[in-house]
Amino acid sequence: MHKNLPSFSKTVLITSVLLSLAACNSTPNRAPIEDRKVGSAAKTVPAAASSAPASASQQPEAKPLPGAENAGKPGYYTVKPGDTLIRIALDNGQNWRDVAKWNGLDNPNLIEKGQVLRVLAPGIDAAAVTTKSVTSAKVETRPLDGKPVAAGAASSGASVPTSSTSASASAASAPAPTSVSPANAARENDEDPVWAWPVTGAVSAGFDEQRNKGLAFAGKAGDPVMAAADGRVVYAGSGLRGYGNLVIIKHNATYLTAYAHNQALLVKEDQAVRKGQKIAEMGSSDADQVKLHFEVRKQGKPVDPAKLLPSR
Fold first, then answer.
1. CATH number of 144-312
2. How confident is the model over 273-290, as pLDDT tens digits?
3. Which one is the CATH code of 63-135: 3.90.1200.10, 3.40.50.2020, 3.30.870.10, 3.10.350.10?
4. Closest Cα partner for 308 from 262, 251, 223?
């Protein structure tokens, strides 16, 4: 078709074709640039991915719970799931209000799992308290009048002091003078209280450290429940699950007593009470039948009340 074109025109046409071919041949030379762009983008993705951990590491670390530095130390307690301040105080032989004060708790209902609480008064040597609770003298069984029981009349569950210690034990166990208030007696006297039975009913279930941390007494709804010794009420309410309407009395730095399942409470927190004073009426709150569940706690640990109460 180009036979009739002038030679000059043929030359121009050939030149144009050659330039077009050269342009086509130059296209592969741009591929590395495109590859570098792709490669650059590919490198950018890992960089973005690696920035995620970096941003995570820049997040502020979780703030340690209050008292964490005291975990495991004597006189401190680490909060566990389901704990309440009332339960912690009872298990450590303390007034829950004191525990709240020692730990600066504005709201005693707000405690967290893992939080470490002081459960011993500031300035008290926890090691000395532990040693004293382990090496304390054996319990003497006494009747309601406070006089020592003769060795032959002691109940089988109690031990009688030897002659070398009976005099001092009798003096220590004598009731506080009437001029000393129960409040002061509870704060100052750290000897064994003079115990009395909390009800007149019979024992329906004995002490078992695992299943029944006290004694259960049978009775009728409304039967009087009495303080087992002089002391001060540190709790009166129904905030401790499984105990119903509960009264807790602190007798001294060593002993607490608890009276559970009442139908009515007749005392208030921080009220001083005397041995034999009516503090509640027997009931079946948080229980399947009318009964009194009675506990004695020594340094927070449940002990068998039958070894402390006088013979009937």
1. 2.70.70.10
2. 999 999 999 999 999 999
3. 3.10.350.10
4. 251
